[in-house]
Amino acid sequence: MSVKQRDIIELNFLLPDGVSKPHPAIVISNDELFEDEGFFYCCLISTKHYNPQYIFELSNTMLIKPLSKKSFVKCQIIGGFTERDIIKQISGMRPEPFRLLIDKVKQSVF
């Protein structure tokens, strides 16, 4: 399954406590990285509103297909993955809100 920047996918995400669980995540790396190297970077998406200084709240108007629950991108929880890690495609994010998300990721991590 191919992946592109702004895709929302489900994959097994290694959480900070060392447990790996299926979670939605948004692809934040550019398409060229995936095409050239075969891997991509994602931020975890959660329904939990913990650490509000690091979250980006998603609304259904930002998305191609609505998510089933109120969700937040955890901008500080980033992982690297390959195509074989993808469980399924869920949705995608529209370009303008994605730019705002990337700004929040930069602010949170760098």
Would you kindly provide a written description of the structure presented here, covering whatever features stand out?
The protein starts with 6 loop residues before the first strand and ends with a helix. The chain is 20% helix and 43% strand. The relative contact order is 0.26. The protein has a single domain, classed as SH3 type barrels (Roll). By secondary structure, it is of the alpha+beta class.
Task: List key phrases describing it.
about 110 residues, alpha+beta, SH3 type barrels, six-stranded antiparallel β-sheet, 2 helices, globular
Summarize the structure.
It contains 2 helices and 6 strands, in the order ββαββββα. With 110 residues, it is an alpha+beta fold.
